[in-house]
Amino acid sequence: RDPSPSEILRMAIKIPTNEELLQVTGIVVWSSLHPQSNDLYGYEAGIRFTDFIGKSREYLAKAISKCLKRA
Length: 71
Fold this sequence. Notes:
This protein is an alpha+beta fold. The chain has one helix at residues 56-70, and strands at 8-13, 22-35, 41-53. The N and C termini lie far apart (34 Å).
């Protein structure tokens, strides 16, 4: 189902620069449905992170910094 704006999500995110999953909570700001093959659908969504568990904020900041340095 399409995540609706203002919906609160709890997520576990795997990033390549860290072995631990990032544990975050966020609010859906926007979402968009994208039809795919075999009657499947995918969604894109903009999430405003509101809470980070443990060192998740630090790990995400380091991953973003590395990406920006390569760009």
